[in-house]
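Example S7 (structure tokens).
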């Protein structure tokens, strides 16, 4: 049956039969992998642990994150992405190769087609870095999709309609927002203020108010447990352990949700301003749509207590949180992947194939 096929076509056909094509949400904090027809099969931190001298990779993902702040001098932990883009090409390649092989049960013979989400504001050089990293990690073909579009598709917004849909995706390293109509992004914004900056603000507050030094993992846990951006019906307290900045000795303090809310105020205010800037640039007809349709919050930052209420108050628009904010981008890459064989290269062709 292959006699009339070229060698490259034949090989691609065979690889297609053997491999599981995948969509990858390559995030600053976490990487999610979605297999065609199977959904999300991997969700691990975007962290790599390496030997300081030999540069040999010792651990990737969840195992590497457990080492953060706990390694001897001979081991360093690296987060290869910063603000949603590649900061360390070599480590990103190692990480992608590990995740692709893990999904394919460690087979190095299978070469999948891969869809990777990228921030909407990245440069051509940064796009090429993502593309080359995926290729070097073993991808047969690589396709890129902007994160706001992937997030909107994954959240089930009717992006192909001639009406405005607005998405705000707050990730680990970047926050993205877009107003989408007829399968394209009419307005898009991207800033490097997101979950990581919120964690850093919590760390700074503890150093300033309690003379306590904690790691980024502890700061993230505080944000998740008692963090909020809007007054709570019942304020909470939490016992935090760390190192006294003055004496260097272990120390325990009790903090309140009000303190954490004050710490989060600055980064959240910057995100709110970005949303307002996007709304100011939205054409009048689409703005009229948003009065009724509002906007949707996605990404890990959308889980922050009170955020929908605060955005609603600041924008005077209806605000909803996605059903599963953490997986919107990954699910969107998976749906993009499912439509690749039939699409003709535009988002409009793609979204006609997707039923929210």
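Recovered sequence:
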């Amino acid at each position: 049956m292959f006699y009339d096929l070229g060698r490259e076509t034949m090989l691609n056909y065979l690889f297609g039969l053997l491999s599981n094509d995948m969509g990858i949400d390559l995030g600053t904090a976490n990487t999610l992998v979605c297999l065609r027809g199977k959904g999300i099969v991997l969700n691990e931190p975007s962290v790599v642990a390496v030997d300081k001298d030999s540069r040999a990779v010792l651990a990737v993902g969840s195992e590497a994150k457990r080492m953060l702040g706990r390694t001897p001098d001979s081991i360093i932990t690296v987060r290869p992405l910063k603000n949603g883009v590649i900061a360390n090409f070599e480590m990103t390649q190692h990480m992608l190769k590990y995740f692709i092989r893990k999904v394919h049960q460690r087979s190095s013979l299978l070469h999948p087609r891969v869809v990777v989400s990228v921030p909407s504001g990245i440069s051509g050089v940064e796009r090429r870095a993502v593309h080359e990293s995926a290729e070097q990690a073993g991808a047969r073909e690589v396709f890129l999709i902007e994160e706001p579009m992937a997030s909107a598709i994954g959240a089930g917004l009717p992006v192909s309609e001639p009406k405005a849909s607005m998405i705000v995706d707050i990730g680990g390293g970047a926050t993205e927002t877009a107003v989408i109509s007829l399968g394209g992004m009419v307005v898009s914004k991207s800033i490097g203020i997101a979950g990581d900056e919120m964690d850093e603000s919590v760390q700074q507050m503890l150093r300033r108010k309690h003379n306590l030094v904690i790691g980024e993992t502890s700061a993230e846990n505080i944000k998740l447990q008692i963090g909020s951006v809007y007054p709570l019906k019942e304020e909470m307290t939490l016992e935090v352990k760390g190192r006294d900045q003055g004496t260097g000795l272990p120390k325990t303090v009790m903090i309140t949700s009000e303190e954490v809310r004050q710490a989060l105020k600055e980064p959240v205010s910057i995100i709110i301003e970005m949303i307002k800037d996007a709304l100011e640039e939205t054409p009048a007809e689409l703005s009229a749509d948003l009065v009724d349709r509002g906007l949707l919050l996605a990404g890990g930052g959308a889980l922050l207590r009170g955020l929908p209420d605060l955005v609603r108050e600041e924008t005077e628009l209806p605000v909803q949180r996605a059903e599963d904010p953490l997986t919107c981008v990954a699910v969107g890459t998976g749906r993009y992947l499912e439509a690749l064989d039939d699409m003709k290269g535009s988002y409009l062709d793609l979204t006609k194939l997707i039923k929210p």
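Notes on this example. DSSP finds twelve helices and 18 strands in the chain.
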